[in-house]
Write a structure and sequence with these properties.
11 strands, 4-stranded antiparallel beta sheet
Length: about 120
């Protein structure tokens, strides 16, 4: 399984960015696809994503009023639309997928929010 993330960049506080992640390879049996992030000096944390077959969305309280996660079921792709970005949203964002008990990671997309 390969995950290719795109998007991210530098934005001023209050601005918006969109992240996209496309999967390829043997993705049959995907159980979860979503986004984590890791800020400098901090642990990687869950942000938002889907329990795949059920289509159930899980999203952290600290972003739920500002971020929207979406998916393309046919392409096994997910996206994260981020609005009203804050300085504390600065992090490397990682796409992740759980397939048959193995978690796969994308390469990470830097999101930097400036004042």
């Amino acid at each position: 399984v390969q995950l290719q993330a795109s998007g991210g960049g530098l934005v001023q506080a209050g601005g918006s960015l969109r992240l996209s992640c496309e999967s390829s390879g043997r993705t049959d049996g995907v159980a979860m696809m979503g986004w984590f992030r890791q800020a400098p000096g901090k642990n990687r944390e869950w942000v938002a994503g889907f329990t795949w077959n059920a289509g159930k969305i899980s999203i952290q309280d600290f972003v739920k009023d500002r971020f929207v996660v979406s998916r393309d079921s046919a392409k096994k792709a997910v996206a994260l639309q981020m609005t009203s970005l804050k300085l504390e949203d600065t992090a490397v964002y990682y796409c992740a997928a759980d397939v048959k008990g193995v978690r796969y990671w994308g390469q990470g997309a830097q999101v930097t929010v400036s004042s």
